[in-house]
Amino acid sequence: MGSLKEELLKPIWHAFTALDLDKSGKVSKSQLKVLSHNLCTLLNVPHDPVALEEHFRDDDEGPVSNQGYMPYLNRFILEKVQANFDKIEFNKMCWTLCAKKNLPKNTLLLTDEDAFKVWVIFNFLSEDKYPLTIAPEEIEYLLKKLAEAMGSGWHQEQFEHYKIGLDASREGLSAWELIELIGSGRFSKGMDRQTVSMAINEVFKELILDVLKQGYMWKKGHRRKNWTERWFVLKPNIISYYVSEDLKDKRGDIVLDDNCSVEALPDKDGKKCLFLIKSLEKCFEISASDKKKKQEWIQAIQTSVNLLKLGNPPPHKEARRKRKELRQKLQAEQEELERQMIELQVANENKQKELETVRKQLEEAAARASEEEKKRLKTQMELQDRFCLELEREKMVRQKMEEQVAQKSSELEQHLQRVQELEEMYKQLQEALEEEKQARQDEETVRRLQARLLEEESAKRSELEKLHLEQQQTIQMTEAEKQELENQRKIKEHALHVAMQQLEQLELERKQALEQYEGVRKKLELAANNTKSWKDKVAHHEGLIRLIEPGSKNPHLITNWGPAAFTEAELEQREKSWKGKRSSPDQ
C-alpha cells in the first residue's frame, strides 16, 4: 500500500503544481474540488464533496497550499484506494492537467503519446523527493533501455560527457527536461520517429505495464486441438494472449502461481520448438518460432514462477529498488563522507585556528624572542662596548699598572739601592756614631785637659800675680833686691813666658780640640740630617720596606713619620752635649 501511495502521489503532485498558475504554492478550493472529484472517479473511491469543505472550514476563502491539501488527500482518497483502477487513465488525467503548461512545444522526435509515456516512466524512475527529479543513474538506465530497444549501440563516453555538463547544484532532471532530452535525439541519432516511438512503447510496457516478454507464438487448442498463432504477453503473475499485438481482442489468460511449471517438449505433429506450461487447471502446449525464442520464453516464465514463489517483485522493479538502495547507500555514504568532511573541516578549521593561535603565539614568541634577541644583542653590544671600554680601561689601567709596576720596580730598585745606600749610610752612621762617641770621649778628654790646663793656668796666674806682688814688694824693698828680683823676675818672666808659651800651646791645643769637636759635631749633624732624611723616606715608604735596625731595650720614640732613630735618653744626652758645645765658646 505504501508503494502504491507513493506511485499515485507523483502524478497528483504534477497536477497540483500545474494548477498553481502563479507559482505561489497554493491552489484555489474550487480547483481542488474538481481535482479531488476526478481522482475519486478514476481511483474508484467514493467521493464526499462535503469532506473538503469540512476539512478546511477553519480556513478562510483563500487558496490551499500543498501541505494543507495533503492531509485531506491521504485521509479521504489515498487511504481508500484499491488496486482495481486503470493506472493509464489515472496518469492521463494528471498528464492532461500538467502537459499544456509544461510540455515543450518542439519535442522533435516525440509524439504527445510518446511524451506521455516518457512522463509516466519518469514518475516510475524518479526519486521520492519533491520537487521530483530523476537521478543521472536512472537517466542512464532509461537511455540504455531505449538504445537496446532501438537496436543502436550505447555510447557511454557521450553520456559521461553529458553528465559532466549537468548542473552540479541539481540532483537530476525534471520530467519536462527528460522529455526534451529524449525528443532532441541526442542519444538516438540516425533513428526515425517511428523507431524511437516503438522503443519508448517497449520500455513503457516493461517498466509501467510490467510486461516481461511479448511476441507471437503458436498455441494448441484444448477442444479442436488445432494450432493457432497468438500474441503472448508475459507479466509477473499472468500470461495473456491476444489475436494480434494491438491487444484489442484478448483470447485468454494463463494464471501463474507457485504450482505452475514449464518444460520443453520434443517436436511432434510437424511442430518444432515446443514447450509445455502446466497449471492446476490446464496445460498449454506452445510452439516458438525458433529454439532461441523457445529458450527465452521458458527462462522468462520459469523466472516469473520463481519470483512468485519467493514473493519478489518483477526484475525491473527489483533492479530499480536495488539502484535506489545503492543510491541511498551512496548518498548515505556521501552524506557520511560529507559529515566526516565537515567534521574534518571543522576539525581542520579548529586545527587551523589552533595552528593560527600557535602561529600567532609563535609569531608573538618569535617577536618576543626577536625583541629579546634585540635586547640581548643591544645588551650584548652595550656589554661588549662596556667590556671594550672596561678592556680599554683595563688596558690603560694595566698599562698604568705596568708603568706603575715598572715605576715601582724602578722605585723598588731605587729603593733597594737607597736601602743599600741607607744600609751603607747606617753603617757610616754607626761608624759616625762610634766616631761621635770617640769624639765625645776625646771631647771629654780635651775638656778635662782644658779644665786641667785652665786650672793650671789659673794656678799659674795666681802664682804670677803672687810673684808680681812679691816683685813689686821686692822692688819696693830694694834695688838690689830689685836687681835680684829683676833677675828673679826675668827668671820668673822667662818661666812665665814658658808658662805663657805652654798656655798658648794649651790654648792652641784647646782650639784644635774645639775645631776637631766642631768637625765631629758637623759630621754628627750631617749624619743626623742624613738619618732624618732617610727616616722620612723610610716613613714615606713604610708600606714597602722598613729598615732593619738594631733593637733597643729602651722604648723608642714614635713620631709622625714612624719610630725615631734615637731613644729618649740618647736624645737628652745629645741635647746636653750640644748645650755644652754652645756654652764652651762663650767661656
TrEMBL record:
<keyword id="KW-0472">Membrane</keyword>
<keyword id="KW-0963">Cytoplasm</keyword>
<dbReference type="InterPro" id="IPR011992">
    <property type="entry name" value="EF-hand-dom_pair"/>
</dbReference>
<dbReference type="GO" id="GO:0003677">
    <property type="term" value="F:DNA binding"/>
</dbReference>
<keyword id="KW-0238">DNA-binding</keyword>
<dbReference type="InterPro" id="IPR011993">
    <property type="entry name" value="PH-like_dom_sf"/>
</dbReference>
<dbReference type="GO" id="GO:0005886">
    <property type="term" value="C:plasma membrane"/>
</dbReference>
<keyword id="KW-0966">Cell projection</keyword>
<feature type="domain" description="EF-hand">
    <location>
        <begin position="7"/>
        <end position="42"/>
    </location>
</feature>
<dbReference type="InterPro" id="IPR057837">
    <property type="entry name" value="PH_SWAP70"/>
</dbReference>
<keyword id="KW-1003">Cell membrane</keyword>
<keyword id="KW-0175">Coiled coil</keyword>
<feature type="domain" description="PH">
    <location>
        <begin position="210"/>
        <end position="306"/>
    </location>
</feature>
<dbReference type="GO" id="GO:0005509">
    <property type="term" value="F:calcium ion binding"/>
</dbReference>
<dbReference type="Pfam" id="PF00169">
    <property type="entry name" value="PH"/>
</dbReference>
<comment type="subunit">
    <text>The SWAP complex consists of NPM1, NCL, PARP1 and SWAP70.</text>
</comment>
<dbReference type="InterPro" id="IPR001849">
    <property type="entry name" value="PH_domain"/>
</dbReference>
<dbReference type="Pfam" id="PF25530">
    <property type="entry name" value="EF-hand_SWAP70_N"/>
</dbReference>
<comment type="function">
    <text>Phosphatidylinositol 3,4,5-trisphosphate-dependent guanine nucleotide exchange factor (GEF) which, independently of RAS, transduces signals from tyrosine kinase receptors to RAC. It also mediates signaling of membrane ruffling. Regulates the actin cytoskeleton as an effector or adapter protein in response to agonist stimulated phosphatidylinositol (3,4)-bisphosphate production and cell protrusion.</text>
</comment>
<dbReference type="InterPro" id="IPR002048">
    <property type="entry name" value="EF_hand_dom"/>
</dbReference>
<dbReference type="GO" id="GO:0005634">
    <property type="term" value="C:nucleus"/>
</dbReference>
<dbReference type="GO" id="GO:0030027">
    <property type="term" value="C:lamellipodium"/>
</dbReference>
<keyword id="KW-0597">Phosphoprotein</keyword>
<feature type="coiled-coil region">
    <location>
        <begin position="316"/>
        <end position="530"/>
    </location>
</feature>
<dbReference type="InterPro" id="IPR057836">
    <property type="entry name" value="EF-hand_SWAP70_N"/>
</dbReference>
<protein>
    <recommendedName>
        <fullName>Switch-associated protein 70</fullName>
    </recommendedName>
</protein>
<keyword id="KW-0539">Nucleus</keyword>
<dbReference type="GO" id="GO:0005737">
    <property type="term" value="C:cytoplasm"/>
</dbReference>
